[in-house]
Design goal:
Layout lengths: L2 E4 L5 H21 L11 H9 L3 E7 L5 E8 L18 H9 L4 H29 L6 H12 L6 H17 L2 H9 L5 H7 L11 H12 L3 E2 L19 E9 L8 H17 L7 E8 L4 H9 L4 E6 L5 E10 L3 H16 L10 H28 L9 H30 L1
Parallel strand pairs: 5-6
Antiparallel strand pairs: 1-2, 2-3, 3-5, 4-7, 6-8, 7-8
Helix pairs in contact: 1-2, 4-6, 10-12, 12-13, 13-14
Length: about 425
């Protein structure tokens, strides 16, 4: 039986090398399977930083020999609009701007706020700029930094320059302004100077664009985000209140390829979610929480873990110059949080035998869980077969999952049949 352990400052050395080695093993295995680019390893030093930071939780699953078989990194409370802030994707674009505008009864108040916040944003940008240049005396200006990054990596999704700008701007806002301005800063983050000018046209106002505004706009434009146009079958607006403070990111989950056990990733991710949710709702002001993940579209393993936990709403985005990614999300209100955790605990016990508290689970609950999982596997198998048929080159589909789905379907059906038979035996004996 596996044991789940959280890494702390006291025990990290015991497991740190094992996790870093596990990352390398998985990366090599994925390369052999033609899945290169689906995993970005974190590395020993960064894993240690996760352990020491209040925003991250690192959990491992160990066997009876104290060997790490799986690991996960769970994040909550990152700085807004940095690389790991998944919630920003759901607060972007024309629909979101119209939503923000609809929150104002007075249009003048709306125009006043966007002007005020934009000026504050540029103040924060000036602060970030000075700090970055002070840290990099060999660079004369941000344009030199930008050209260097574009040449080296195309100013991609993990851009050091953009991360520092967003991080330092966020720090400036939080240290110089109160909660009201902080919330407005998040609401109006994507507003550009051109948006402001168009909003002020009814007043006949013509505004010159100051040089510092131009510099900020250029960096903002270079870091533009693209949401791929796909038919969404969910209401994006229910995620407009998501932010880093009320969201849990299922960052990374790793399992040993050679000794992989069914459900081990789900088990450690569940323990991370549980820890963060319980802590979050200790504050009576917190009325909701969001679960988020981002993954490569072809990485079906990650898709199945995300959907297991209810992250079934998703956007398909291009994070600047990086790879296209799916970002998954779900919302859990306070009044449903304990029910959610109970249901997940029951699922892990029934489907994967993870029941550390030896909780008694009724046959009716077992049947419900097995039937729901069977329906999911049948639907997914049908989708995979259709994708294989439509796409002759099998692009965007891992064929090996089709056979695995059939095995799961047979096993689930067998478990359901066994439950039915046991209930018949009980009835007969009476």
């Amino acid at each position: 039986m596996i044991k789940v352990v959280e890494l702390t400052k006291e025990n990290e050395e015991q497991y740190l090398d094992q996790i870093a080695n596990l990352e390398q093993i998985i990366l090599e295995a994925m390369k052999k399977e033609g899945r290169e680019g689906q995993l970005f390893i974190t590395g020993k030093e960064d894993i240690s930083e996760y352990v020491h930071s209040p925003e991250n939780t690192v959990l491992v699953a160990i066997n009876e020999n104290d060997k790490v078989e799986a690991a996960t990194y769970i994040t909550q409370g990152q700085k807004p609009f940095t690389y790991n802030d998944i919630t920003k994707y759901f607060k972007y674009g024309e629909k979101y701007q119209q939503y923000v505008k609809s929150q104002y009864q007075d249009e003048k108040a709306y125009r006043r706020d966007i002007r005020e916040i934009y000026i504050i944003k540029v103040e924060a940008f000036e602060y970030a700029k000075k700090r970055i240049l002070a840290e990099n005396p060999q660079i004369r200006n941000l344009q030199q930094y930008l050209k260097k990054e574009i040449k080296e990596n195309g100013y991609h999704e993990k851009s050091e320059l953009r991360e520092k700008i967003n991080l330092y701007m966020s720090e400036y806002i939080n240290s110089h302004y109160g909660k009201e301005i902080q919330e407005k800063y998040e609401k109006f983050y994507w507003i550009t100077f051109q948006d402001i000018k168009s909003e002020l046209k009814p007043d006949g106002s013509e505004i010159e664009t100051p040089k510092i505004f131009q510099e900020y706009e250029q960096l903002l434009k270079k870091g533009s985000l693209k949401i791929h146009e796909e038919n969404l079958d969910f209401d994006v607006s229910k995620y407009y209140t998501a932010k880093t403070q009320n969201s849990i990111e299922l960052d990374t989950y790793l399992t040993e390829p050679q000794t992989r056990r069914a459900g081990i990733a789900r088990i450690i991710v569940y323990e991370g979610i549980k820890k963060n949710m319980e802590e979050h709702f200790k504050n009576p002001e917190n009325q909701e929480i969001f679960l988020c993940s981002t993954l490569h579209r072809d990485n079906l393993s990650s898709k199945y873990v995300s959907e297991f936990f209810g992250l079934t709403d998703s956007l398909y985005v291009n994070r600047r110059q990086g790879r296209d990614r799916e970002v998954h999300i779900c919302r859990i209100p306070r009044e449903q949080a304990m029910e959610y955790l109970t249901n997940m605990s029951d699922k892990l016990a029934v489907l994967y035998g993870y029941n550390p508290n030896n909780k008694k689970i009724s046959n009716s609950t077992r049947k419900k869980i097995l039937q729901e999982q069977l329906n999911y596997e049948l639907k997914e198998h049908k989708r995979l077969v259709k994708a294989r048929t439509v796409d002759k080159k099998l692009k965007g589909i891992n064929v090996r999952f089709i056979g695995g789905k059939l095995k799961k379907i047979r096993r689930l059906q067998q478990q359901l049949n066994q439950l039915d038979e046991s209930e018949k035996d009980v009835t007969t004996s009476k």
